[in-house]
Write a structure and sequence with these properties.
This protein is α+β, with helices and mostly antiparallel strands. The protein is built from 5 helices and 3 strands; from the N terminus they run αββαβααα. The chain has one domain: Fe-S cluster assembly (FSCA) (GMP Synthetase, Chain A, domain 3). Helices cover 32% and strands 10% of the residues. Strand 1 and strand 2 form a beta hairpin. Helix 2 packs parallel to helix 3.
Length: 157
């Protein structure tokens, strides 16, 4: 058992065998229509901040947890932390936001939320993840930025 982890023994699922439809890490251009699978292809391999597994492997994200309204330019990701008191929920949300900011045109509004009932501080986490000033301030913290960058690194794990 690992000391200091919120969820020392998470349930790990097999990665889905499917070929990504998007060419990573190239951003989507502004003339292309975007659908949930495009978004999922970009975020499924983000590494969990505490474990050497992807968000997909820990079932933090799924294809069904992403909705896109291309007409309104909105992307909504709802993720499910592995435990109710996950201290890394905001870091996961920051990782998702940073990744999507680099992959999609700036006219897309990105909303990131924890699944209803999946986190003890759901309202607080959602507020923090969708407040531009709080996100900017968090990413100015060098230690937090380093953790986000490590989770987004393209190294195989």
């Amino acid at each position: 058992m690992t000391v200091g982890l919120c969820n020392a023994n998470p349930v790990v699922h097999a990665k889905k065998d499917r070929i990504a439809r998007t060419e990573q890490p190239h951003p989507v251009d502004s003339s292309s229509a975007v659908d949930p699978l495009d978004v999922y292809d970009y975020v499924r391999d983000i590494r969990d901040p505490e474990h050497p597994y992807s968000l997909e492997q820990l079932s933090v994200l799924s294809e069904e947890s992403i909705t896109v309204d291309d007409n309104l330019g909105r992307i909504l990701i709802t993720f499910t932390p592995t435990i109710q008191h996950c201290s890394m929920a905001t870091v996961i949300g920051l990782c998702l936001r940073v990744k999507l900011k680099h992959c999609f045109p700036p006219h897309y509004k990105i909303d990131i939320k924890v699944s209803p009932g999946s986190h003890a501080n759901e309202e607080s986490v959602n507020k923090q993840l969708n407040d531009k000033e709080r996100v900017a301030a968090a990413l100015e913290n060098p230690n937090l930025r380093q953790l986000v960058d490590e989770c987004l690194s393209s190294d195989e794990f």
